[in-house]
Amino acid sequence: MLSHFGRILRQKEASISMGAPEEATKKKPTSGHISEQLEEDISTFPHMEVSHLYFLLQVATTSHAALADAEVAAAKTKLLGLIAEHHMAPFYERVAAEFHWPVDTALLATMKYFHPPQQTQHNEDELTKLDGQLADAEANLGDIEVLEAHLGRARLYSLIGDKDKVLEAFHTALAKPTSVNQKIIIQLHIIRVGLFFSDLPLVETHIKKARVLIDEGGDWDRRNRLKVYEGCYLLMARDFKKASSLFQVFVGLHAHVNRDKYLALHSRYIYRELRILAYAQFLEAYR
Fold first, then answer.
1. Which distant-in-sequence residues (6+ apart) come within 8 Å of 97 by Cβ?
2. HEC states along the chain?
3. What does UniProt give as the signal peptide span (predicted)?
């Protein structure tokens, strides 16, 4: 049941995480709304496939892991490929320290000092440019341009997997004049960052905030996105009944639950509860 459930979640994640161009945000004239390109980017970063591969490698270090050596090697290779592709230097340093990998200094230097996709611009230069846009917006432009400048920084930090910096950028943006819809966009992205890093307290806090804002004026797309994120959170928090009601899905369960990011921690609980239910159903015939 729940293994396929996990695959559906990842498909849902993919539907809101793939296909976002990674070029530097091009600000266009706005009238009370952030640019569509910027909104699309901050709603699809960080890439959840990276988070899933990271989780598989964490699973491989536990006693209940059912991953073959070849699967572990494939997950590591793919993860490093995605990290390099998106120039995720802060995230690379994080996982290298956690898994005690020798740091590839050449790869790290490439990720730190070049920004995709042009391969010609230093990350530091990109941040300097964003700082310049912010200073210009604060001095000469309006609230929406100031907000876009802050979100541009959040976009970059989200793409490269710098958790502390992206949260700092979003909290700074929330302190600026923002509409309900802009607040919803920010809250949804903070939830996404929390799911990426499996930070359940962060996710729970901002789900509550997003729910209040969406009740004030969220559209259909953002309501559905919140349901997906909340369903992922509920699976990780072991509230399977409520998660099922959100996803409206009923599917089969098998041993691959141990490889699912949202369910692996609860695999013994799931099997125990299912055995109890099955045995109760069996005894029902003798009443």
1. none
2. CHHHHHHHHHHHHHHCCCCCCCCCCCCCCCCCCCCHHHHHHHHHCCCHHHHHHHHHHHHCCCCCCCCCHHHHHHHHHHHHHHHHHCCCHHHHHHHHHHHCCCCCHHHHHHHHHCECCCCCECHHHHHHHHHHHHHHHHHHCCHHHHHHHHHHHHHHHHHHCCHHHHHHHHHHHHCCCCCHHHHHHHHHHHHHHHHHCCCHHHHHHHHHHHHHHHHHHCCHHHHHHHHHHHHHHHHHCCCHHHHHHHHCCCCCCCHHHHHCCCCHHHHHHHHHHHHHHHHHHHHHCCC
3. none
Can you list the domains of the chain with their CATH numbers? Answer: 2-284 (1.25.40)
Nearest one of 201, 196, 185, 169 to 88, comparing CA atoms: 196
Two tokens, residue 122: 């230093």
**Contact residues for 104 (Cβ-Cβ < 8 A; gap 6+):** none
Confidence (pLDDT) at 178: 84
Residues β-bridged to residue 121: 115
**Tens-digit pLDDT profile for residues 230-285:** 999 999 999 888 887 777 643 455 556 777 888 888 888 887 887 787 777 767 66
pTM value is 0.72
Centre a 10 Å sphere on the Cβ of residue 60 and count the other Cβ atoms it contains.
Answer: 19
- What are the residues facing 7 on neighbouring strands? none
